[in-house]
Amino acid sequence: MRAHDDVLAGAGGVQESHFPALSGPESGFPELPADGETLLEVRDLRVRFSRRGRHVHAVNGLSYRLEAGRMLAIIGESGSGKSVSSRALMGLLPSTATVTGSARFAGTELVGMTEAQMRRRRGADIAMVFQDPTRSLNPTMRIGTQVVEAVRAHADLDRRAARRRAVELLSLVRMPVPEQRFGEYPHQLSGGMRQRVMIAIALAGEPRLLIADEATTALDVTTQAQIMELLVELQHRLGMAVILISHDLGLAASYAQDVLVMYAGRGVEHAAAETLFAHVRMPYTRALLGAIPLLEREPHTLLPVVPGQPPDLSALPAGCPFAPRCASADEQCAVDPPLTEHEPGHRWACWHPVPDAPAPDAASGDRS
Amino acid sequence: MTASVDAGRHRAGPAFLTSPGMRLVGKRLLLAVPIVLGVSILTFWVLNLIPGSAAQQLLGPEATPAQVRALELELGLDRPAVLRYLDWLGGAVTGDLGQSLVSRQPVTDLLGERLAVSGELVVLAFVISLGLAVPTALLAAHRPNRLFDRISMVVSITGLSVANYVLALLLVLVFAVQMAVLPAIGFVPLSQGLGENLRSMALPAAAIAFPLYCFYTRFLRGDLVDQLQGEDYVTTARAKGIGPWQVLVRHAFRNSAFGLITVVGLNLGSLIGGTVIVEQIFALPGIGQLMLQAINTRDFVVVQACVVVFAVVAVLANLLADLLYAVLDPRIRYGSR
Ligand SMILES: Nc1ncnc2c1ncn2[C@@H]1O[C@H](COP(=O)(O)OP(=O)(O)O)[C@@H](O)[C@H]1O
Ligand SMILES: [Mg+2]
């Protein structure tokens, strides 16, 4: 079924004929937000997994702010707490997890909500798209039924209205011939099409924040680009904020407005994408980016492997958790550096920030 | 463009009979033939190995060698075993399973009524056990390791460790002797009223159903919890904001049901064998009782027929499970890419 993706790739930009006008008033999607309105404010978020007396501190004082309608990329090594911290926002962690701290969504505190309160908000405030579209859809249920279920979770619609809405959502994610696709099962679709279904499900409750947790990692490069274009387009059309969790630096640089770098369950550097990639301050981010300037990279470069071991989350030492792997570390790093705004709009947690690289033309002169 | 892409897709409906699921069932059906043949050959061979001639057994120890010889000739027991087997097979294929050596009645007549009794027993046990196991497992999996789950765990483990006949005797002791609400032995045919018939079947069906109930509950509860904790589609369902029962029943149970169908199919086959002891205890005129009587009287023709019936039922039960699976699982129904 790869052919479907190619059809869309060949079509290039937006095909207006494919979708009904969904951002109009009758769609029910929220009006585009005012600039700078805080949608999500995470403060000192902590997640601890406890099992048989052993504790894993997966998230350790994560703080960030996300404005409505923006796309924030969260990057970091595997195990740095990207997934756990975002699942905590939706109450989707197993019962072994204890969440503390604060996460306010449009002014409402999410931490400490009961399961019933949280359930009413899932899908309606925050929705999520996961990495593996093959495993994320129920293999025994028609895709239409799965979308309809999401539609009816939050809207009191009868069957026919819910079905109509589900078909609309499938067109919105540019599923070709959605009425026909409606009755098919997930295994009859390509990976890219399955991920479109996942996005349609996520959009069903008209969320103001969509979390895409490695949503394109399992797809081939062409499909990956199509899904990313779709996410960006939906972000703008629906005025929806997006958290893009990714291993792919190229993805973060090309699509996100803001970038948050996570290490050992906390934020270590946070800035607008241009700022962060032009003026890397945190040695860990530097290591993630490697020595090569970003522009020289092939598109869709995966994070290079940072030398050394990630810290043991069951016994975090005092001080900066990156110090054991850091070339600039000294005795000052025994004190944990806070994530502070050192330059306008640029926050980092380090006592020894990396100075700016030489001017770009000097660098290109070196290479030639 | 999109239309041409879609034209090449295969759809359900008329193509159903050639679907991969149906091919699977066809293959299984072909495999069933050698299985039933093998069982019949093995039984025939083992029955022939039993020392002493059947004629001697039938006539008793005082019979003269001449009498024995005459009976052997009459019953055709003097002919080579291979020929006798082929004779039997030829008859069996046309629905003639021979005559009982003892009563001289056609074996098919003997089997007919008794199969109905055993069949009713098995179906009742099966309906009771599954009908109770599904809600129990759902309730237990809804809150794993909480009170209800723990109690059901203890009940199941107890039930699985108690032998069938011990349970049967306990049931008789409690319901027939102490409370005197149900008959301990005897069978009332359906022709004398459904109520009386069910009352006579209640204790034997319960004796067979209880261990099955325990097993199905454990199996289904475990599979449901695995689905709930380990499967991504469950997280997707929860992330939609639907309620926990909807996640459990519409998503997890739907997937766990496939495992359960397979287990039930395997079980149903051995279940008919499990009726032998219970029919004996409750004096039910079923096929299990018939087989035990036939073994005692060395009525090999009847024993042979009973064993083959058990084999056919086991094979058919598995086939039925495959068929259900093929009908229910879209991945098999429509084939995988
Ligand atoms: N259910 C769980 N029980 C115990 N530890 C967990 C669980 N889920 C995640 N973790 C741990 O939490 C840490 C962060 O995981 P995660 O957020 O998935 O990382 P990533 O940044 O790769 O998404 C990892 O060390 C992981 O082993
Ligand atoms: Mg992850």
Structural summary, described in words:
The complex is a heterodimer of chains A (about 375) and B (about 325). Chain A is an alpha/beta fold. Chain A folds into 2 domains: about 5-15 and about 40-245, 3-Layer(aba) Sandwich (Rossmann fold); about 260-295 and about 305-365, no CATH class. Helix content of chain A is about 30%, strand content about 20%. Chain A contains 13 helices and 12 strands. Chain A has an 8-stranded mixed beta sheet, with helices on both faces. In chain A, helix 6 (about 160-170) packs across helix 8. Chain A is globular, with a radius of gyration of 21 Å. The termini of chain A are far apart. The model of chain A is unreliable at about 1-30 and about 360-368 (pLDDT under 50). In chain B, helix 7 crosses helix 9 and helix 10 (about 230-240) crosses helix 11 (about 245-280). Chain B has one domain (about 20-50, about 95-330): Orthogonal Bundle (MetI-like fold), CATH 1.10.3720. The longest helix of chain B is centred in the C-terminal third of the chain and has 38 residues, at about 245-280. Chain B contains 14 helices and no strands. Chain B is mainly α and about 325 residues long. Helices cover about 75% and strands about 0% of the residues of chain B. The two termini of chain B are about 20 Å apart. The interface of A and B includes residues 90, 120, 185 and 187 of A. The complex binds adenosine-5'-diphosphate and magnesium ion. Magnesium ion binds near residues 82, 83 and 214 of chain A. Chain A: One of its GO terms (molecular function) is ATP binding. Chain A: Pfam families: ABC_tran, oligo_HPY. Chain A: This is ABC transporter ATP-binding protein. Chain A: InterPro entries: AAA+_ATPase (IPR003593), ABC_Ni/Peptide_Import (IPR050388), ABC_transporter-like_ATP-bd (IPR003439), ABC_transporter-like_CS (IPR017871), Oligopep_ABC_C (IPR013563), P-loop_NTPase (IPR027417). Chain A: Keywords: ATP-binding, Cell membrane, Membrane, Nucleotide-binding, Transport.
